[in-house]
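Protein modeling request. Please complete all fields; requests missing the sequence field cannot be processed.
Requester role: graduate student
Desired output: 3D structure, C-alpha cell encoding
Chains: 1
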Amino acid sequence: MEYFPSHAGGDRAAFKGKTLVVPAVGHGNVGQLAVDLMIQTLVVDRLAPGASGASRLGCLDHPSVMPCVGTDAFAPIGGGSPRARATDEGGSQSKVLATALELHGDERVCPGAVFLQLRGDVCVGASKKFANDLASFIESCAFAEVVIAASLPSTAQGAASETVGDTRFRHARFGVFSAKETFELVTDDRWSRVDVPPIEPDSIPADKSAATSLLPPWSLLRAVARVSPKRDASCLVAVCSEGDNSDDAARAASTLVRFLGISAAGGDALQPERPKLRDGWSVPSSWLGAYGRRAASR
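Delivered output (298 residues):
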C-alpha cells in the first residue's frame, strides 16, 4: 500500500487520534454512496466555492485495486449544460481527477474525521490481501477509530418477516478472543444508543476459512481486529435490495453522523443549487449522470 499525500494536512502524522470512515464494496454500493454524501456535505460544501480538490488529503495505490480515473467527483454545479456542470465557478474546466482510492477531509470544517473513498474494484481473490494491507496502513496512521459502511442483500437473512425493499440497519463488531484468531460477535452499546441493533449471527460467516469470510466487509473488519485489537472498529450494515440506493445511502450517512457525534449541517449558502436528499445530504456532481443526462443531439 503506497500513500501519496496531496498537501501537509494529508501527512500520516496528521491522522493520529482521528476517526476513519471506510466504505466496503457491497450490495447496492450503499457504503460508497454514503461516503460520497458525507464528503460532499460535511467537507466540500463547507469549503470555499470553486476550491476543487481541496477536500482531498491524498491518494493511495494498491496492486489489488483496479485502477480507474474520472472527472472531479465533487465539482461545483454550474449552469444547465453538462460542460457547465463540469466546470468551476470561474468557468474553467476543473483539472481535478478522481482516482481509485482517496482520502478526504479538512480539519477546519469537519474536525476529527477522515473519509476514505474506494472507487476501484478489488481484484478477484485479493480481498484478504487488500484488507490486511489497509489495516496495516490504518495502524501506521494511528487512527483512533475505524467505522466501516457496508451493505448486504436482503436475502442474506432468512427471516420470513422481512421483505424485499425493506432496508434495515445493523451493526457488527468483532473481538479477538483466542490465540487461533477466531472471532466472536460483540455488541457495541454506542450503536444501540442510535437505534441500530447488532446484526443477526447467521449473517456472518462462522468459518473464517469460508469464501464468504474473505469478502468485504468481513475481511476488513477481521483484519483491523487482528492488527489492532485495542482500536475501536465497527461496521454499519445496510441490509437492502439493489436498485436506486441513494435513499439508503442518505439514511446510512445520517446514522453514521449520529453515531460519531458529527454535525450534519452543510454549506447550503455556498452551493444553494445543489440537489438534496433526505436530511439535507448534498448530491455530488458525479451523481447527476448516474441514469443518463438527456438524449444525444442528432
